[in-house]
Amino acid sequence: MKDSIFYLYGMVLASTSFLLKNGFLKPDEYSEIKEKYRFPGGETGTCATVLASLGSIVKLDGTHIGINVAPVIKDFYKDKSVNLDSLYFDKNYIGLEDYIIIADDIRSPMGTFADFFSSGEKRWNEPKEDDVINCAVAAIDPYFQEQSQRAAELCVKHGKPYVTIDCNYDSYIHQNSAISVISGEGIQNNYPEKTREELFPLFQEGSNGLTIITNGGKDLFYARKGEKIKTFTPCKVNVVSTLGAGDTFKAGCVYALSKGMSDDDIIKFASACSAVAITKFPIPLNPPTLDEVLNLLSL
User: What's the whole-model pTM score?
Assistant: First the structure.
């Protein structure tokens, strides 16, 4: 039953993934491609795909969609509960894409994100207040500067809880989030000299929401301000590809938050979503279903 509208603001792009047959790339050696796909991606694009699979209605906004990317986005979501009306389709822009090489539990993304952010052209939308007003829960990528903060401010203004990822611990978006998820990649990009153990108290005390620091398939940390830090060990599954695991975890947090789950159950549910996702490839063709997640939780 599609009973919740989720507003997702952030990265939506075309993503081409290559699953290799016999291990990861080696210099000057040939590699056989086992599978190749081009689907909507980005943190927000993948999150939307998973939430739709879980039975929710999604409103997407964020990245401008260029002419090379538009057909992929429109065709993929045409029969799904994902509303594209707020996206801006720019006929004068090629579009943002990334490319990912995957083998076993290793993946290496490539793209033009440095140029995307340094070009001086802000190819992303201003968040729309009505989209926030009409949602149950939001998810906000922090990458779009003042526009990302504006989305968070609108959520605060209208009392809408939101989930975010890889923010700085002293940022407005983290401070006012219902759930803030920090990944290993986020730590590496923003705090390369600090460990998870050093960072967690800083994030924890910087927000009244739930702080989570993930660690791939290893124990994650979670707690609220003033609480004792808890750990959780993700389910052990047969990994086919870890691509999109973090975005699926975010989707699980959004869904669980909308259902009023406890912090412990949010962690269990989001982790189960990721566990189901990494047993398949690619996620857009095989997103976790609610039945699959609940079945894993029942084991």
Answer: 0.95
